[in-house]
Every structure is written in structure tokens, then in C-alpha cells.
Amino acid sequence: MGGRLTRVFRTFNVENRARREISKEKPTPAPRHPSARLDQQADHPGIREDIYRKDDRLLALLKEVYVESREPAGRVKDGGGEHLPRKQEEKRLTKLGHLGDLDVKKVPKGKVSIVEALTLLNNHKLHPHIWTAEKIAAEYSLEVKEVNSLLEFFIPFTVKEFPKETRKAI
Description:
This protein is mostly helical. Helices cover about 45% and strands about 5% of the residues. It has helices at about 1-10, 15-25, 40-45, 45-50, 55-65, 115-125, 135-140, 145-155, 165-170, and strands spanning about 90-95, 105-110.
């Protein structure tokens, strides 16, 4: 029903509206900037002469330049099997893991895995007097400043179950 009604309004007086739109005067385009014109060379014949004229001073300087290339004395090694030395990161074994092969086994010092982060946040929430920032930093090889920021800005969710009597009241 709604489709028929909208179609009536859409097709109402279509021909007159189309004629009115077509008969409107077209707007004149904005004038182009002189630098955007392609026929600049026709306006300034001196530009064409400058392009094709030889500069003797530059040509003399160019003739003085001499490039000599030599092949290196020894053959270049392809470095088969050689690797660039890189900094060895100190890693520590993770504290938790119940997923077997899916668990992260080693974590660089100064970082924690997601499972460890959630665990330490939850431990601090449940027992803040035992799990202080200093103890967490020592346990997980972190800096105290970073642990303080972590405990301040990240709070784990709590799940609350309502008794059946209160569910009906809600």
C-alpha cells in the first residue's frame, strides 16, 4: 500500500518537471587559472626558445665530469646461511596455561600474556593487600610504574548472579 502511494508522488507531473529542468540556462563554468592552461607556450614564445637553446657554460661543465666504474676485485658472497646478528631478547616462561598447544609458552621480559594480565588484575582486585604493585612487578618481571598504570586504568569485569526471587522483582 505504501509503495503505491510513494509511486504516485514520484511520478506526479514528471514530464513538466523534466522540461523545466532541461530548459534551465546552464551555468557558466568558472574561469580557469592561467597556469592551468596547456597552450602556455603559444602565449610566450620565449619559453620555447629557452627550452631548445644550448647553454655553452653548462655544456663545458658537463664535459669536465668523468665517471669511472670498476668491478670489485673479489666476488660478492651471497651470504648463504649467514644471518645478521640481532639482539637476543630475554624471555621468561609463562605462569599459567590450560590450553596446551594454544598457550603462549615464552613471553619477553617486561611483557605479559593476556591470560597473565587478566589473572594479575583479578588477584589484585580480590586481595589488594597481598598482590601489591611491587609484588606483581617482581613476579612478572615488569616495571612498577607500568604495573601501577595497569592497575589504575584496567579493571576486570565482575559477574553477579541474582537470586531467583530478585529476578522476578527486576
